[in-house]
Amino acid sequence: xxxxxxxxxxxEYETAIELYKADVAKGKNxxxxxxxxxxxxxxxxxxxxxxxxxxxxxxxGVKNADAGFYYGLALKANGKFDEAATQLETYTQSGGxxxxxxRAEMEARNARAATQxxxxxSNNEVTxxxxxxxxxxxxSSTIMPDTKELVFASGREGKKYAGNGEGLNxxxxxxxxxxxxxxxxxxxxLDPIFNSExxxxxxxxxxxxxKMMVFARSNNGSKKGYLSVDLWASYFKAGAWTEPALxxxxxxTADDFSPVFxxxxxTLYFASGRKGGQGGNDLYxxxxxxxxxxxxxxNLGSDVNTAGNENFPAVxxxxxxxxxxxxxxxxxxxxIFAVEKGKVKNLGTPINSNGDDFAPYFTAKDAGVFSSxxxxxKGSDDLYMFRRKPLKLVTFFADGxxxxxxxxTGETLPLANETVSIQGSKGQKMDVTTDAExxxxxxxxxxxxYTLLADRDGYFTARTTLSTVGKTPAQDQLANEMNDIRxxxxxxxxxxxxxxxxxxxxxxxxxxxxDIRPDAAVELDKLVETLNDNPxxxxxxxxxxxSRGKDAYNMTLSQKRxxxxxxxxxxxxxxxxxxxxxxxxxxxxxxxxxxxxxQYQKNRRTEFKVTKIAE
Length: 615
Fold this sequence. Notes:
The protein is α+β, with helices and mostly antiparallel strands. The protein has 4 domains: 3-118, Alpha Horseshoe (Serine Threonine Protein Phosphatase 5, Tetratricopeptide repeat), CATH 1.25.40; 124-388, TolB, C-terminal domain (Neuraminidase); 393-495, Immunoglobulin-like (Sandwich); 502-613, CATH 3.30.1330.60. 21% of the residues lie in helices and 32% in strands. The strands form 8 sheets. Strands 6, 7, 8, 9 and 10 form a 5-stranded antiparallel sheet that branches. Strands 22, 23, 26, 28 and 30 form a 5-stranded mixed sheet that branches. The model has no long low-confidence stretch (mean pLDDT 92).
């Protein structure tokens, strides 16, 4: 084995990376050395940096069959979702590792779904806790019940860890001057009983009474030490914390980490890479008995766990379970999810990003802290405060005017004391009366469709529609917590004049035919509406041709067209006694000396006139 291989085998990935890169620079075993650089980045949780090295290894003909799978994951970690999906789909067809092939299929689906996840956005504001963050890692926080300090893990003072070149993690605490804003205060390191010089410590959780603390502690790499990450517990007795001891939920062959107590302190949730799960790290729970021992760990099942990694559970004040995962559809690496009504839901941006977003902890109902290595931070993992912003509310109003329209002059006059009926698509019915200026205003529901009617004896009923569907602006476009959106609407009442012809626009027929075309049906439906809105009127529907063609032919054609229109209207439920068909041929032109096509078109028209108004 080369020096690089030996360092790699011992998990000293940071040193191995530099040695393999030197081999590549010398042209020594280039494809394999690039592959080992990529693997070292992946195994030290920096897979986004591995992308170029996996590609170089594959282009160089590396023999490892699984390189294509991990290359796909590296592309996904860098937000190259389409490329990642294609690469992972190719891997599933390569006949490689069956277990990885099944996961590749899942990862490809997730990559294809990433665009939808990117469109999801929660109503949270996210702020970096820069008075706590350093260029080292800060992650996985909780509140110490008695002192109300924020306890978190950090590598700021630890010896360099050969796995990733960062400091070994220890547990720290800070008591903020302003807890709500998480400002001020001085960071202190927890007692030596919790921190060691040659191991990682992280992810503390406290029982509700503050008497029991559980945290994760790693091995130190020695053959005599523990060979995995395990959960340890300490108890506050006689004014002091006891020496931490292993708890009975650990699997000595696998990593067990990121513990968190339930709200009542009776259940411990944690992550584990033990055998028998769904794949990768899974979430488990165990019940604390009266004797201080935990029940056998129980896997949370396939609704939560995937073939990927589920880590860092959290329990919100309302009992909702949150966790981090790279196995559910997300934005690249670890995202934070919630289990709502048995369904796993991605929290969307700005909580999640293309980086690792993990370890949420709630300090209040709608606020808390999480960890992320997203771009723009101080270094490795940083702590971020999240706070759900108050939801800005919108109220819709119809601001209307009712007028009387003079058909001769086109002028309008406001109508006072007119009743407007408003009917909603969800069954809502409301009446409102206009003021002295003919105006009215009424509150509307969101995401609803409305029909507004103004009815007056001797006038055609005025009708219009209004919709609030899709009209609610985005939260960032609203200026205030309470916002009024006013929608103008106008209803024009026109006197019914008997035997006055009213032209119906856009009633067209195919040449030498009288069938009702779809475009004509739309216009005839409006006349059906008028007849339904004005049940006292009886009308004559007439059809007219231009002067071209023989008189008898035009008369017959116009009668057939008029009758066809009447038959259509009757088919819609209108009493046939209320409508008569009449064809006038070319006998009643609008323009008697028509010569242009536009003038002929005006003569080819369909009209109706009121012939009777019932008392």
